[in-house]
Design goal:
Length: 344
């Protein structure tokens, strides 16, 4: 759901590593007994009129998508269908997207016909009612659900119960990139604390291109994203600190790239100070690929083991907001011991 920049990179990764998973860049070749080649896209939805009706191979590179095109994609044989839109379309996106939507019954019918195992929600931030409508459709179609958006789905007790009773897995909320600003910020703070220093204050400022960053300029969406990022970061420190993290501006010619600026102050022996200024430059789409690969395969493995509802090992590993957050390294250790099965 949502054929934007993250979906574009994900689709390229499916083909690239599906052909040869020894290629550089793939984090986990095997996870839960599954390879990348075991995953297949069977249905796709979007509300952008320019993408509806196109094969995924073409929709992946259709404007306003700006994710880098690493190679030509052969047709998937899957055409983009009209998706759900239960919200007023964000004002910042109206200038680049003409929206068309479908009825829930149409989406559910497709999901059932294609026997979808896992739905991946990659629609724009701020479309809360649409994300929840997709989650409801997943239950009706008996599909597990990944909520990569900051909308409250996996952290909603009603959805948790609904997926558990339906013997489905629910994962979310707000995808955390493999090496994006949040993960990097958390890692630095944990390292400082582990070395006996005391973190005093920090902030993270992001500037990027692409429609997701453009959409984040909406004040309500910006505030939500900032709250989620900040809440995720402070998990690393067992005491209160002053910290702020969030998107500050959109620069169209940056494309799918993002620059994150970090400023961190810590105190040490005899009150000595340590200050850190760091620039991190990344690409949003590829940064999401490995985490989505892992989450999707972990969900399938959990289903086979008879685990349903919200699974904390998956949520803490792949998302900024979870019911019982833990430190980043603890999340990885728990996830790895359960799903990596002593493989690479």
């Amino acid at each position: 759901m949502g054929i934007g920049n993250c979906a574009s990179s994900l689709l390229q990764g499916l083909r690239y590593y599906g052909e040869d998973d020894s290629r550089i860049g793939l984090w986990h070749r095997q996870l839960g007994g599954y390879s990348v080649s075991d995953m297949e896209v069977v249905a796709a939805f979007d509300v952008d009129s320019k993408k509806i009706g196109l094969d995924l191979a073409d929709a992946a590179f259709t404007i306003p998508n700006v994710a880098q095109k690493h190679f030509e994609l052969k047709p998937f044989g899957v055409k983009v269908q009209k998706g759900l839109l239960e919200d007023n379309f964000p004002s910042k996106l109206k200038s680049v997207i003409h929206a068309e939507s479908a009825m829930a019954d149409e989406v559910i019918s497709t999901l059932k016909n294609e026997r979808v195992d896992v739905m991946v929600n990659l629609i724009s931030s701020g479309l809360d009612h649409s994300s929840k409508a997709y989650a409801k459709a997943a239950v009706d179609a008996r599909s597990s659900f990944v909520n990569a958006t900051p909308s409250t789905v996996a952290s909603d007790s009603r959805f948790q119960a609904s997926f558990r009773v339906s013997r489905l897995v629910l994962a979310g909320d707000d995808l955390m990139s493999q090496f994006g600003g949040t993960a990097f910020h958390r890692g630095i703070l944990d390292f400082i604390h582990s070395r006996g220093m005391r973190v005093v204050r920090s902030y993270q400022l992001d500037v990027g291109g692409g429609t997701e960053t453009l959409n984040t300029l909406d004040e309500d969406i910006r505030a939500l994203k900032r709250s989620m990022k900040t809440s995720s970061i402070v998990v690393e420190i067992p005491y209160e600190i002053d910290t702020v993290a969030g998107t500050t501006d959109y620069v169209d010619y940056m494309g799918n790239n993002r620059t994150s600026y970090f400023w961190i102050e810590g105190g040490g022996f005899l009150g000595s100070e340590a200050r850190i200024d760091v620039y991190l430059r990344t690409s949003d789409g590829p940064n999401a690929g490995n985490v989505l690969f892992d989450v999707i395969r972990a969900i399938k493995f959990s289903e086979e083991k008879g685990e349903y509802g919200v699974i904390q090992e998956i949520c803490n590993y792949g998302f900024k907001k979870s019911a019982n957050p833990v430190k980043l390294h603890q999340a990885y250790e728990s996830f790895g011991s359960k799903y990596l099965l002593n493989t690479n």
